[in-house]
Design brief:
With 361 residues, the protein is α/β, with parallel strands linked by helices. It folds into 2 domains: 14-123, Rossmann fold, CATH 3.40.50; 129-352, Hypothetical protein af1432 (Orthogonal Bundle). The chain is 53% helix and 7% strand. It has 14 helices and 5 strands. It has helices spanning 22-32, 61-75, 107-152, 158-175, 177-184, 191-208, 213-225, 235-238, 246-252, 255-266, 271-279, 300-315, 326-334, 342-348; strands at 14-19, 37-41, 54-58, 82-86, 98-102. Strands 2-1-3-4-5 form a 5-stranded parallel sheet, sandwiched between helices. Helix 4 (158-175) packs across helix 7, helix 6 (191-208) runs antiparallel to helix 7 and helix 12 (300-315) crosses helix 13 (326-334). It is elongated.
């Protein structure tokens, strides 16, 4: 779909310090800033954007639970270590990514603990980055092979499709959707980028709405195959540096049917996957293509992929326009009345990791 790389700026690492003790907060901030940027908020403030490297929480006991929930929503399952400075008997339950110290611990000891966490988090992040790069290269090679095989009329290897699906799920589960997009969009890979982008969003979205492992695999697999019909669309149309002509649009709109027919002819693909490949451009009001499905005729899996597909397309850079920001893309999608499922669209918003979350006041 999109041509040309989208450059997503790397996020500078920072320590998030949440504290309701102004004097101690200032002192800790100064110490942490010697080794890493420190962003501080007080009780009731909005969390800064982005994913923190390390989180330090220094709050009164009554605010701990709500703050933990807000931070958990922000990190969305990513491995972000946290240090909680406890007061009295208010000790949070143990967790693999969290340690605690009494708030009365000497400041030098607290800072030493924070510095050790920063060092450990940095080493772990470097290891994750290496794994992510390897998974991106593997997924790109698999998608390229799938498209090449489809273009040549050769059968798709089910093992390759499943392996590509697993690679995307593993990458997004460990590193998150933003890191996945950073590495996927590092180089210009044309339609492969869009495929891997939509698959990444599908993996993240499926996790957000709590799909079980089997349904999540099916969703990501459908996303990986949703545009396979473009393997039979002329390259000069796919790569055209500008809007398509009416005839080119007619040919492009053939790709869902081509892809579904290709998979049906090969056999071995479950009906839900075929449904997504053929119908991911259908609209709830019946104005989509190729079959003009409407309402309940558009299956849930198709609706989910449609949200991921449209958001990815709007935020990808094309040679004839700049990408929309996440906020602008979501605003555009909410205005597409009759196209996308509004309940799913609302559920998709957290996947974009935009906006702030307030800690307890």
């Amino acid at each position: 779909m999109a041509q040309g790389a989208r450059i997503r700026p790397e996020q500078d690492p920072y320590v998030l310090l949440v504290s309701d003790r102004p004097t101690e907060r200032t002192a800790l901030e100064r110490g942490i800033a010697l080794v890493m940027d420190c962003r501080t908020v007080g009780a009731g403030d909005v969390l800064p954007p982005g994913l923190p490297h390390v989180v330090v929480v220094d709050l009164h006991a009554e605010r701990l639970a709500a703050t933990e929930a807000a931070i958990a929503a922000r990190v969305a399952g990513r491995p972000v270590p946290r240090l909680v400075l406890t007061r009295g008997d208010a000790v949070p339950p143990p967790a693999a990514d969290r340690r605690s110290m009494p708030a009365t611990t000497p400041r030098k000891t607290v800072l030493a603990g924070i510095f050790a966490m920063i060092e450990a988090a940095t080493r772990a992040g470097e290891a994750r980055a290496r794994r992510l790069n390897g998974r991106s290269e593997a997924a790109t090679a698999i998608v390229a092979e799938l498209f090449d095989s489809a273009a040549l009329g050769a059968g798709l290897q089910q093992a390759d499709v499943d392996r590509g699906t697993d690679v995307v799920l593993e990458a997004v589960s460990e590193a998150g959707i933003n890191a996945w997009l950073d590495v996927v969009w590092r180089y210009d890979m044309g339609v492969y980028q869009h495929t891997l982008s939509v698959a990444g969003y599908a993996a993240a979205f499926g996790g957000q709405i709590g799909l079980n492992r089997g349904d999540l695999h099916r969703l990501a697999k459908a996303a990986l195959l949703h545009d396979i019909g473009k393997s039979r669309i002329p390259a000069d149309i796919l790569n055209k540096p500008g809007p398509l002509s009416p005839e080119e649009i007619r040919l492009m709109r053939m790709h869902p049917g081509i892809g579904a027919d290709l998979l049906v002819a090969q056999g071995g693909f479950e009906p839900a996957i075929l449904d997504v490949v053929r119908h991911h451009h259908e609209k709830l009001d019946g104005s989509g293509y190729p079959d003009g499905l409407a309402g309940e005729a558009v299956a849930d899996l198709v609706r989910i992929i449609a949200v991921c597909d449209v958001f990815s397309a709007l935020t990808e850079r094309r040679s004839y326009r700049t990408p929309l920001t996440s906020q602008a893309a979501l605003a555009t999608m909410f205005r597409m009345s009759g196209h996308l499922d509004p309940v799913l669209l609302n559920a998709f918003v957290p996947v974009t990791h935009q906006g702030g979350l307030a800690v307890a006041g």
